[in-house]
Amino acid sequence: MSKLKILTYPDKFLLQPTAPLENIDGQVQQMIDAMAETMYAAPGIGLAATQVDQHIQLIVIDVSETKDQLRVFVNPQILWASEETALCEEGCLSVPSIYDEVRRPARVRVRALDADGKPFELDCEGLLAVCVQHEMDHLSGRVFVDYLSALKQDRIRTKMKKRRTREAA
Ligand code: ZN
Fold this sequence. Notes:
The chain has three helices and seven strands; from the N terminus they run H-E-E-E-E-E-E-E-H-H. The chain has helices at residues 26-41, 126-139, 150-168, and strands at 46-48, 58-61, 71-81, 85-90, 100-105, 107-113, 119-125. The two termini are 29 Å apart.
């Protein structure tokens, strides 16, 4: 298994919508392994297929401190979101070294398939709720930067461009 290249904002492929997976075959299993490896190596707590230029509805998450509780969500759907919201500082492997606060529902109930294709429902709160919503946004072509003011978005785009020029040099 090898690490995958992570697209960086504002790459246009981050905006591409995803298709649900029809079945979880060996190729998908390999993608799950590669995405998990890429996430742990980054290091990050979540990764959506969109971020590695795979436009399928697949996310991997591990918010545990011990980094041994990998959660796989295939074709995730939000069944319910709390009216209560929470403000949390977010970052993203596709927007390196940028962190800002985003307000989202504090709790969500998600339905998805696991890595074996078995359906499950999960009540999420705290960091897990933030992470699930953040990663699911990627599947619809949304990045957390989109929630920030136009001014902040401009600044981040400029920063990313500079970073890219620096890395290319
Ligand atoms: Zn992200």
